Model the fold of this input.
Amino acid sequence: MTDHGERYAEIQRLAELLRAGGLVAFPTETVYGLGANALDADAVARVFAAKGRPATVPLIVHLAAVEQLPIVTSRQSELALRLAQAFWPGPLTLVLPRASAVPDAVTAGLDTVGVRVPAHPLARALIAAAGVPLAAPSANPFTRISPTTAAHVRRQLGDRVDAVLDGGPTEVGIESTVVDASGERAVLLRPGGVSVAELEAVVGPVQRPTRDGDAALDAPQASPGMSERHYSPRARLIEVERDSRGQLVLSPAPGEASAWGLVRMVGGDATPFTGAAVDQRMPQDVTGYARRLFAALHELDEAGCEVAYVERLPAGPEWEAVADRLRRAGLRAADRG
Ligand code: TXA
Ligand code: MG
Done:
């Protein structure tokens, strides 16, 4: 059988597994998702159990095409349709009023649901073959690093997932942008694969929820689940900068006893540091950096690093999503006091 034929057979088998209530991890253009039939409350409960995720954090529902929106949402605003037309298939999740077919477990009891049409051809083939929308959070244990390869999924979830569809490393590397499109104006709930500048080019000013819920009356609360620490490697991450000669200053100095790592930009001084268990050279463009980010954090874990020095990111709004993930991974500026 041809490769194509084998892939087709594999997708049919995994679609059958999903219809039977199984959990299948699959690649999207952002990160790997842990998929289950979104309309099957028992299957969805297994997703929460496999991730160790609290029931209060809602899941994103993945569709094969925009035409499936009415299956899971009760109202599609003009704003939502404009965003969908501009960015689907792609790394944008829209929060919309949910349809009654969506179990409470998916939305954590909210009356809205997060939906997106992913761009990855294997994801779309799998959803289409399953014939049902797929609820899929990132395929990692709760609070840990999102997977950008099938190996990351297997290492972190092991046999808690029934199957993994391997599509190689993901293209975007960080999760989708989450936008509440249930009101008149777009509200950014999570920065991600689509930048705010790209959104604003289509729908004008994008609002941001305030921290403590004293937002304008029409602004919803910050996205559930976005306040906790997420995306964490085991290593403590310390932000570092270069000195006037362009050399990275590792402060506080690494201890002798434990493994440590470095996540720095390519370019600049590239002198190797003796003793570094991991020395990641990250691309200087935001797209390339985002694509590499989670793999770099996974490598720190695999090498048993207890501390990692992360070179300060360039300034600029386009770095927002990457900076957000590093902050949630626990990155702190070194205490130079
Ligand atoms: O790129 C992605 O979005 C990946 C791939 C697999 O699609 N998925 C992903 O899912 O990142 P997850 O479960 O790790 O993150 C989903 C986030 C939740 O933490 C929450 O912040 C937001 O989406 N969300 C989902 N439904 C929501 C809702 N009804 N209201 C507000 N926020 C919601
Ligand atoms: Mg996640």
Observations:
- The CA atoms of residues 93 and 178 lie 5 Å apart.
- Residues 137-138, 146 surround magnesium ion (ligand 2) (CB under 6 Å).
- Confidence is low (pLDDT under 50) at residues 213-221.
